[in-house]
Amino acid sequence: MIYCANCWKALSDETHMRKCCDGIYYCNRECKRQDFKHHKTSCPNLIPKGTPQLPDAALSKKVASPFYRLQRGDYLQGLPATDIYKLLIDAYRLRVEDNKAYAGTRGEDSIYGNAHDGLEGFRNFINRAKEIPRMLPPWWSDKKQAECEGLGRLKGWSSLSCKIDGADVRSHYNDRFMDIQLRFLAEDIYGTGIGDRQKRFLRPEVEKLTDSANFRTGVLLRRALSYHLLKLSTETGGDIWLDPRLMRLMKDDITDNSSTDLAGQVLMLRILELVE
């Protein structure tokens, strides 16, 4: 099935759709016009020839307008199979790391519990994803799931036996907002926030914004996430000043927003309130 990137109408034959670029189709001219504001910033057909592109260390195809796609629920649609496998594996691994680091929970089916590897926990994660409309691509099958699990069994970055944190994700993907994207994806699949007892955090935050395709979305979400993780850590009795993960998040936020930035000052005041 081919889905319209604007209205989600499904057709079995792409010849009846208007193709814009790889993986992006529209059912008519009006749908293409309505989606143009969001799609134009990432459409490869609109990028001038000779424009330098940053190398992507992990994905064969960059996710276009990621927060807009996450908000709309089609983040994984139109991506190559191997890229989808990697993103699902890393969303799961980062979530179980966050559960342990910020909520003190260790799932028995994860490597933080009693499991030899994270395969069983990852299977449960995928089973949840399969129950959510449009979360996985229409070609997903038991065979594709087996391929995805097979990637997680191999040695290397995607190994389900290895731990990762947010800094690892940002470095590996060469994208300073990639950890936020994966946390958002995991929240939508689990239906809960970090620790599995909290409500989802990132979706309500992005829905407050008027344009989730804007670059500043990542900056604003990281600021909100920094405070949220600090709050979770203090609630579980953690010492935030000794947690290198939180220190890196704070450093990134201060880098994006100078000390004269009012929003940055507000964040620091809220941090001080937490630790007093």
Automatic annotation (TrEMBL):
Q: Which InterPro entries match?
A: Znf_MYND
- The yes or no answer to whether the keyword Zinc is present is yes
Tell me the superkingdom of the source: Eukaryota
Q: Provide a Gene Ontology MF annotation, just one.
A: zinc ion binding
Instruction: List, for all copies, the residue spans of the domain called MYND-type.
Output: 4-43
| Record flagged with keyword Zinc | yes
What keywords are assigned to this protein?
Metal-binding, Zinc, Zinc-finger
Q: What is this protein called?
A: MYND-type domain-containing protein
Q: Which species is this record about?
A: Xylaria multiplex
